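Readers outside the structure-tokenisation community will struggle with the description of the input data as it stands. For illustration, here is how one protein appears when written out as sequence plus structure tokens:
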Amino acid sequence: MLTRKQFDVLEVLIDRAGKISQRELAEKAGFSLGRVNTVLKELDEMGLVSGNRITEKGIEAMQPYRVKRAVIIAAGFGSRMIPITLNTPKPLVRVKGSRIIDSCLDALKEAGIDEVYIVRGYLGEQFDQLLYKYPNIKFIENPMFNEANNISSVVRAGDLVQNAYIIEADLLVYNKKLIKKYQYASNYLGIPVERSDDWCVSVSGGYITKMTIGGKNCYQMVGISYWTAEDGKKLRAAAKEVFDSPGGKSRYWDQVPLEYHIKDFKVEVRECRFEDIIEIDTFNELKQLDETYR
């Protein structure tokens, strides 16, 4: 098993696919030049790098960290987007000519993640149109979309949440690099903010310790997360347990690992910026992004 820093260096090298200076490597990996030198020596002794280039053995060492699939949650009605969602599922609404969900699907395609599942419910048959551009997509039907919250979609996905991204379908992904081919640990995308009235998480020791609505000096949550095989297995069981409990159908799936079972998970925050991604919640927000709706 690789250490975190060994993984970080190899991830940069495999993405670069060519020679890179140690200074640039340090900048991209996010730690000091001295630390990079130390890690490179370790990797060289292991036969994973040669002359600041990743070897075939190094590529093999990264395979256990390869993201296997993505599960996109797209079953909901999108009531705050009325009237546009009366006839169109929210993820299929177009912004400046492109469907919202396409930005995520394009990012997955660029990352080489071909196993993609969309959990659909409201006007589900309309998602078939995606197959013309993305024939690799598979659908998971969620017949409970009208009577349960999005926890029902994670329950329907079952074992597929292992080694997988779980992605909300109403995100406009501007920075496709947010979807990485390799992940070291379970994590949730978040934007560092001084204050937020939205869903946010607090972090201590590198791990999420609390999820709240609103907060100060926290991370505003963005609906892209990754779950390792071990955590995905726990998530599946815990989601089913919460779902079957009194009032469980009304819960958000995020509450399972970040609130009700938070002691059972070690979830990191992966930082991004507001410029990287936008979550479209309301029709007014849609009008601000695309003047054709005004």
